[in-house]
Protein 1
Amino acid sequence: MKFTEEHEWLRVEDDIVVVGITEHAAEQLGDIVFVELPSVGNEVTKDDEVVVIESVKAASDILAPIDGEIMEVNDVLTDEPSKVNDDPLGDGWMFKIKPSDASQMDDFMDEAAYKKFIG
Amino acid sequence: MSDLRVTPLNALHKELGAKMVPFAGYEMPVQYPMGVMKEHLHCRAEAGLFDVSHMGQVVIWPKSGNYADAAQALETLVPVDVAGLGEMRQRYAMFLNDHGGILDDLMIANMGDHIFVVVNAGCKDADIAHMQKHLSDTCKIEVLDTRALLALQGPSAVTVLSRLNGAVADMKFMDVALDVDLDGISAVMSRSGYTGEDGFEISVAADDAEALTRKLLAHDEVEPIGLGARDSLRLEAGLCLYGHDIDEGTTPIEAGLGWAIQKVRRAGGARAGGFPGADVILSQQADGPVRRRVGLRPEGRAPMREGTQLYAHAEGGDVIGHVTSGAFGPTLGGPMSMGYVATAFAGPETTIYGDVRGKRLPAKVTAMPFVPANFKR
């Protein structure tokens, strides 16, 4: 699993990358009450705002970590946004993206580096 | 955060693991490890303990010793019936400017020989100056800055406090009591609050605050609640937050607080008018305001936050109002907002649209409270 400075995690499954937010991010956001997911088939560019998360505190944007096509989204979150708090690395995943440039994955942190990053 | 003021419970909040934030010049707990959502639900199910010591506690002493003289003086600043307020009873009021705008909202209580006032933290310095300027001929203004204020709210609040003093259970909604002995600690209490639940506000000497808080937290029903849940609780209860839902630019009539102006102060009443902005307020009361505060239930789950612009139609047209508070209601199980709209759109069940991140999403105008109140009248 790889991590971004935006507190996203990325897990490679064959030629697809699964994306979610880290436990640290979920904890910082507080209880999540609303998740707006992108449309399947969207072509996105790194740093596009692809997901909106509303917690009891505020709204936050999740940016596309890499260029690619949205292949699948976790629709369950629309009705059960609290899954992001309960299991951010598992059932709380957000979308699957097919990278158009796999080399973009090289920029990200491994778990040890991310742990150091959040201190 | 070194220039922030602290309440007498500051160290205890930190010991309990609270996340502290600046609020109205104070370092206050926004949430405890339980989290906003669970704190909110716990308060509605059992009892939540709030530190509201940042609020201003003030006593208005009539120089004559007669309550009636203090009441007469205060009635020049607020549109409510102070003279007719029963002894050991509390009432909601607001300070007004000359345009009928709200300078602050407050609670006033008839304590027999004086008036006890609780004002918002963010306004308290201005409120105190306002009272000193306008009431000092006939009254002495005493600021109780060495007292703490706690609120115990929720259906179990009375059960818990009754264990400390059985007489507490005899108080009714909006009753106040002096010198209540809470297991050895002397308190001034009211049966009121800011959550829509039954509950009490408890004023004690600053030196007693931590001991009383620990006593209350020792009961299984009681959990500490931060400002985050305080906001979602009051919003579900349809209660205004000063500086957001009401301010100097809104009148009590626009804000739907006309109920707080008793008949005796309205047109035709024995003491009609006689408060700042009376001409504006009484004419709005007669003719209706051009805009009103309403409750909104957005469809779907996306909250419409403060500042969201409101429209009559899904496309085109002018702005008809804006949201002043918006959040997810944990008890309601969905998003809720309050805001101001032009009167034509203020009727219940009217569908209007809020601009959320560039998309107009539908919301229905709804009567408040969003969650029914649970007072012991």
Note: The mean pLDDT of chain B is 97.
Protein 2
Amino acid sequence: MVKKAQPDAEMLKGTMDMMILRTLVGGDAHGHTIAKIIERTSEDVLEVEQGSLYPALHRLEDRGWVSSHWGASENNRKAKFYRLTAMGRKQLVRETDRWRQMTRAIGLVMGEEAEAEGGL
Amino acid sequence: MSWLRFFRRRKSDAELQLEMDSFIAEEIAENTARGMMPEEARRRARIKMGDPQKARETLWEQNTFSAFDKGWRDLKYSARTLLRTPGFSLIAVTVMALCIGAATSLFTIVRSVLLRPMPFRDPDKLVMVYEHFRSATANQDGFNYNVVAPADYYDWRAQTHGFEDMAVMRRWRFNLSGQSGELPEVVDAQAGSWNLFPLLGVQPAYGRTFTEAEDSSGGDAVMLTWSLFQRRFGGDPTIVGKQIHLDGKPWVVVGVLPAGFTYPDAKIQVWITYRSALAPEILQYHDHHFSRVVARIRPDVSLADAISQVGAVQYRLHMQYLNNPVAEDVAPRSLTDDLARDVKKPLLVLMCAVVCMLLIGCLNVANLLVARSAARQKEVAVRSALGAQRFTLIREQLTESLLICIGGGGAGVALSFATTRWLASAWKDLPSAQSIHVDGTVLAFACGLVFLSAAMAGLLPAVSSTGKQVLAALQSSSRTAGGSRPRTALRKWLLTIEIAVTVVLLVGAGLLLKSFLRLQGTNLGCATDHVLTLSYSLPTNKYDKAEKANAFSEALVERVRALPGVRSVAVGSVLPGEGYGGDDVFTIPEHPPVKPGDDLPDALYRRADPGYFSALQIPLLSGRFFTAQDRTERGNKVIVSSQLARQYFPGENPIGKHLRPPAYGKGDYEIVGVVGDTVWQVGQPIKATMYFPLLGGSSEVGLTLAVRTAGDPLSISIPVQRQIAALDPDLPVSDVLTLEQAIGDSLGNASFSATVVLAFAVLSLVLASVGLYGVLSYLMTLRMTELGIRIALGAQREELLRLMLFDGMKPAVLGLGFGLVAGAAATKAIQSILFETKPLDPAVFVAVATSLLLVATLACLVPAWRASRLNPMQALRAE
């Protein structure tokens, strides 16, 4: 899932769903675009592995946070597009809040108080 | 939504593949756009993509409930394994079906009879109260619960307050006349005191229950039970308030009892009040025992206290009527025990037999499974070497036995639907036979049984076959005995236990059968073949004078005797073997008076017409039979049985002496004859009996006609009934049977238990021999090489036969030994239901041992003989 920075895999496992949802805020996207956006915006720190991207997408769809439809990609290829649902939007807000709390807490523990607070 | 994904696994897998294809295409396009060569672009895209299989697997797993899936996989796997050996599976399923079916049926009956509460308010607060005689002779056939005399009951109720209330009831019989052209019929009735239904907490379906005023001599209120209401009155509620005719007298229907009310048994058709059909003076008797008392326990008084109060009243009565048969004490008994009194013990015996059979069935399936697991030993070893968990392997094998048991359980429950019906109808005296049926609880029981048997049959082989000796199993060649010795030993032990349990069953069945044969072979002391019996009762308002009743009896005898094929005719109150029929005490004026406190002489009471003894071929020992002259005012004669003469006239000639039964108030009855003893109830010791002349002015209403015929007695039944109808068209008859049938009915239960237990035992024997055969055949396969070498080296065939036979017989002999010891201990439990058969009857034990050894030898002989006929070349090549 994450290769270059090698942070603890467990720690970031739950963040995958959140990042996917965040990506979809900008509009419908298919798997390839989602992966690309995550990689680009993380300045290529995070490399999305397809082996976990697609199961994650299916899981999100199953929970009703995203919906999907088949359409044509930018290059006019058949692709499955994912769209954020209202439920997914709420979930994203919840996840983001939790994430912020978490990073702040970790930051406090790690003695980066000023920086963390500044980050907020 | 979310659980649906399980069923859409395939679809989402296909979608995923398309998605990944589109990803690769996009990536290739991008790479190409970056200026890569097509080959390189494809390669990089694939690298970026990673292993597509992994994504598919992750998604598949994500869409799956793992436990469910594993279970399903086990199930499929087991089903395939079972279907690969249909013969084995069929045997195993049949075995389990028989065992589970039998157990379910029996449980159904036990539950209805012993466990289900009665349909009354707070049934556990209800208790029967009986009189209890303390003397040893009264208790020799078990603790004595004596029915209650009416005056005793009224004193109990008036003088004690330990119970909330006490009610009394007794049996009765009526001729129910046809009203609109229906035939008259004999109906069983029950007479209960007015407070009985409120005490039980039973509400009528229509109308009301009895009032206190109706519970009086000459009362004419009647309640119908639901079955009569439906059958005879078409379920029309307007019958309430109308009249019906019982014994030719009008009675007013005040209510109808609800459908579930079949107390004390389902034969009861009408209820009347306790006093209404009784002469008022009978209510004064303390020594006329014919009623049952039911009492409700008060919440604030313990049963023991309440009973001791009643006991004190009874003891006072006993002291007051010292010479009369008035009991010293009282004894309580629960309603369920009271109804199940005759069937409880046989039921429990059958339940034990069924548990034994279930055990044997499980052992058998376990044995078969051990054999299979031995054959699959290599597979199991390889799989555990490859990392299969032991638990997974055990689970898999348990699934197999579970499948067998579910198959067997399903078939067994279907079987028990049929057998329960049959059992309930074949078993006489079963209380609440109507309410016996398979229902939810029973099905739950069957399910529990299925899982229990699956665990019993599957766990042992599964655990034993998944041990840790992976290496040993892999190293050992499949056909050498070395690796499987422990498994063979396990099979032999299972077999030994199986045979031991079979022997216990066989011993039990043998004893019951012998006891039944003894019962059947009982000499009644009279002719029983070619005798037609038929009951009728002359209603007292129509036959109000002895002359009328006598005229009817004599005319009937005359007419029937004239029928072709009739050899002789008898009329009496009760025939030999037909049961108790009443007893009475008497004194002998020629003897010194009985000391106060001693029991008065007592004898069974019968009425007999002049032809009774000669028609039934009861021998005359001295004196004479009755004649037509022994009637009305000259009817104070009595004939006594040989037992009575021995018991009360030892060393005397009883002829010319007198009996003085206080109950009849007619003074002394002269003994005119002594006749041979007859058995009053098969299986019971002979009792002293006194016969009074039927024509001597009878107050008896219920009479039995016995017709001895030259040919088939039943063929004469219609002509006889026509003669009765010609004399009195309103007189219904009942119990048209041959005497053998009538007696057979009383043996029904003994024959029934013996047959069922014998069936179980034979089935177990078959199962055990199948087990023996299987183990020995398997052993032979294991030792094929060894045997081949032996033969090649010149071993004698007879020697090999002996060797194999010895090997197979060892568990049989061992099991027989254990079984005989266990059987000897177990038979103590059934001692009380055996008739003239000792629990350690040597003949039965020898027969069991012989038949078991014989069957075991036969089962072993086939594989042993095959072993001795082996072709050494084939045997060696088979390795």
Note: Confidence is low (pLDDT under 50) at residues 478-483 of chain B.
Protein 3
Amino acid sequence: MPKVSMMSKRSMARRFEMTADERRADGVMKKSGAMKGVRGSAVRFGFASFVACQVAIVLLASMVPGAALAQAAAGGAAAAGGAALTEAPRKLIDETAVKIVAILARKSEPTEKRVAEIESIAYELFDFSTMSKLVLARNWRNLTPEQRTTFVKEFKRHLSHTYGTRLDRYDQERVDVYAAQVEQRNDVSVKTRIVGGQFDGAEISYRLRQQGEPWKIIDVVIEGVSLVSNYRSQFQEVLNTGTIDDLIAKLRDKNFKVDDGAKETAKNG
Amino acid sequence: MRRLGPILVLAGLLLAAAGCATPERPDPLEKMNRGIFAFNEGLDRYALEPVAKGWDFVVPGPVQDGIENFYRNLNMPIVIANEVLQAKPVRVVEDVARFFFNTTLGIGGIFDVATRVGIPDNDEDFGQTLGHWGVPPGPYLVVPILGPYTLRDGFGEIADTTAGAFAYMNFFWFDVVGLSNWETTGTSIGSYTFRLVNLRAIYLEEIASSRKDAFDYYSFVRNAYLSNRQARVLDSTDTAAGIEEDLYELDEEDDEDYEDYDVDPDEAPDEGGTGGAEDAEGVDDVEAVDGAEVRDDG
């Protein structure tokens, strides 16, 4: 595939105010086989279509402003309401996203180290107690204090395994924090969008709650799918046929397997 | 038209079941659904996934993306029609532009030029149109081979497919290529299967890890499907959208005072862990240790 010349690329970048991240994401060819998101997948195209694209841009410029204006207006209106309350959590997500992207970008460092760094950020940021309560819903009250502590511990490990390792596969992307709003119970949801990469355009919303001093994340909603709600429905299913101890055993078993798997790949890789 | 007969009968039966579907109980047909789900999973494991793996091995990622882009672009008129039906003029403009540029400059939709220049990628279908005007999703349904639907969205899919058939099959296959009725049907099924295999190849890793991580894969898929559909209908990925109303409510007794159970009394995880890094990093924030307090539980 012919490379787009630097000159025309720069002019295009200026035209649309692309960020460095985006440009890098655009420039790097994806490895085949792994993770090809179709959602708005920006397929690389050759020089001919690039020139054609420039023509398209000119044509488009006459059509798009209407749409862009409408969106900006909607965004502005949403931002105006409850700006004071949403400011802190929004800033928190924004800063964290920048930190995480920076860690992911240091590709020369060993994966394990970077995952560990991201995990330590996540541990500060997530309220695993509240998440566990929400996930178990009615069942939470039947747990002994020991079971509660064990459950939180294992659930936390499970989340950092599944999302920590997945997180590491997402690189060359930027997170655009574009809105925040006050929810019931004075929670705040912060809305973000992934820019560039395989999941360009994917919407991820974080729900934060303030209990004590810092704001902490209590749920992550990816394309409308809530982590808490999803685990709640699965755990309810396990609890329909078994006890809480069965569930904890299942969690522990899964964590154990993942640890094993990680050791295997560490050995092989 | 003959094919519609059994579908209508089935739809009638499902409408009867729809009465029992409430937001609290979205899956009144769970028993049957689980059976079909298991069948679909088997089909995937022994037929679709292996074929998709082979396809993924031979065909580079960007080509797979191009194929899926082509099919998505082919479907754009249906998307636009649904935006018209939902009275969303901004989206109609965006997607007419998208369809125009991707078809011409994107060479029949293979290259997603529109996304590159910042035209949003909207997604609408007739199920969403019905939802937009207030039709409830009805019971969750797992359809053999085709997978998860709700009654509303399954019906929407039939409507979209039929419309697509008139738009493309009859015109293109009959008139341009000159195929007979049977050949047209065969070609369409072949084309659908090809898209499915290609799409499955794109999501090989995601599906494998979701399956592996799930505690109950059926519930995982159902929850993800229903929430995602609801979010699409509302054109919103708000945390409030698409999920239960009381999701973020705590039990009353817990509401009073906040207790942090996120503590590791015995710091080292019992299995030895993934090597020191994670454990060392994770435990240096020891928070208020009130997890051991004894509570009175009913």
Note: Confidence is low (pLDDT under 50) at residues 1-81 of chain A.
Protein 4
Amino acid sequence: MNQNTSIVEIRNLDYAVRKRPIFSGLDLDIVRGRVTAIMGPSGTGKTTLLRLITGQLTADGGSIHVAGEDMRTVRRADLYLLRRRMGMLFQNGALLTDLSVFENVAFPLREHTRLPERLIRDLVLTKLQAVGLRGAAEMMPAELSGGMTRRVALARAIVMDPQILIYDEPFVGLDPISKGVILRLIRRLNDALDLTSIVVSHDVQEISAVADTVYLLSGGKVVARGTPQELQSYPSEIVRQFIGGLADGPVPFHYPAPDYFSELLSRGEVH
Amino acid sequence: MAKSSALNLGTGAFVALGFAALAFLTTQTTSRGVHISSPPHYDVIAKFDNVGDLKVGAPVSMSGVEIGRVARIDLDTREYKAVVLLRLNAKYNQIPTDSDASIYTQGLLGGKFIGLTAGGADTYLKNKDHIDFTQSAFVLENLIGQVLANFTKSSGSSAAPATAPAEKSK
Amino acid sequence: MNPLKELWESLLESVAGLGAVTAFLMRLIMHTPRTLLRFDLIVRQIFNSGALSLVIIMLSGLFVGMVLGLQGFQLLERFGSEEALGTAAAIGLVKELGPVVTALLFAGRAGTALASELGLMRATDQLSAMEMMAVDPIQRVVVPRFIGGVIAMPLLAAIFSLIGIYGAQLVGVQIMGVDSGSFWSQMRAGVDLRDVNEGIVKSCIFGVACSLIAVYEGYYAVPTAEGVGRATTRTVVTSAVVVLFLDYLLTAAFL
């Protein structure tokens, strides 16, 4: 298999929400078999990008190709087939609250395959074992902690042996131990199952530990691309601000406002 | 799984209850419904000049006791009379053949019903017999017409004697 | 802003909303045949919408019937026609109170449950997750709830009317002394099968309306806590207005 083929190709992407442009002329490649991270300040549209990749949203201009399919012209039936080769981990897990952990992981199998019950059971338990939660199979989602919920969602995402695995902000709200667990899983699963992983996050430390390639988005464009080490010394102000966690820089501290002095004065006059 | 069979049981019970309610409403509250207990009966025919607003299903009673129901109301196009089929409970089989049937009103504004008054014959009504003596329904407009007619008649006759004594005295 | 302009814009919004709801209904109907294959999902929803509403429906039916018995008796007593209580109660319940009150109670109990369930699933990304797993959420989650409501409603209305008639009988015969035989025989004479059918048709149509509004509001709820709350409130309000409006249309149509 060609080592450097892109499984997701984005060229010249345009997307706007209610006249406000989110992306203009975005170029991005997700290479097969690698862990690619997409980072950026809040509000740059990282989740929107994921939705464009999964076909939940349609681009206004440019092209998105996922595993050979043109996402702008793909038909509904083909889109559903494509989605079965993708797994997605949502920010809050998105487990179905009326089903047990076991049933949640079994859900895609029950909906898409006619496998016998014994085989389903084996598959589900195997995936739960991979994320370390085989013992929690009979619990209900309401009884799980945040980290456990996400791990169950991960087991569900890999139960159909997808080619692409997408993580939407997987580290948000987790304690250091749980973060470590997720990190380990991302790397292990990617290598063991020969996946392509896309991780959207803004946790610089965590990403540096696990990603092969990092894209930094800002203002609807790619402002940096490279390995985590390359990004540490990237010659760009905004990359510096983001990586270094600086409060002020190209992304300003102050929300746009009229001149401070004159606003204070004018208030004195009204009074 | 135990959980789903309890669910099925609950749903099934609910649906059964719902349909039972529907069945009750459609059969037990209407006159055209099927009555679960249909006692043995025999039919008797009575002809009326005017049945008023007598309805199918109205009770037929004798001495105030309900002995049957009105089963059908038709029009006899030769005699221009209403033909009413009375379905009587078989256990009341000693009604004399010269009894009469009248149409009464329940309460002041109630529905019409048929009341039978016993005659004196020795033979009793059987299936498909006719009741010969009938009294039509009380129609308000006719009564008013009658009252007015009586009133004008009496005022006309009081006029006549007034003139006679006048003549006598002359 | 100019109040007239506001009125016009809200009118346009309502019309657009009506179009959206109708389109949604078409979508649901088109997905129904395939969903019927998953009968277990529908059974569960009939349980949720119907069986779980039984208590409130039966209690309300009983009290409404008893009040009907009291009021009806008082009114008819003035004309000496107390025996017609059976007819009055039966017709009132079967044609009007049964379908309408049941629909309003349904909207409050089952409708809000449907709307908030779907709204919460929307807010916690469960619906998106299903789409991502290539499972059509409309087919798996929405249509069963819609069908469950449509089936449950006429059954609930029948139960309401039944218990109501019993309640009227309880007051009229047991307490106020109307003759039991007259109560039932007058009812049988005065109520036609057509009346009962009208009531059934009404409750079926109300069932479609209330279930549709509930699943629509839930599915398109804004995915926040506030949004779900608003969707729930709108379900009850819209259902109530629509049911009462449809009631007038249907009553006039049947006349």
Note: Residues 176-192 of chain A form the longest helix (17 residues).
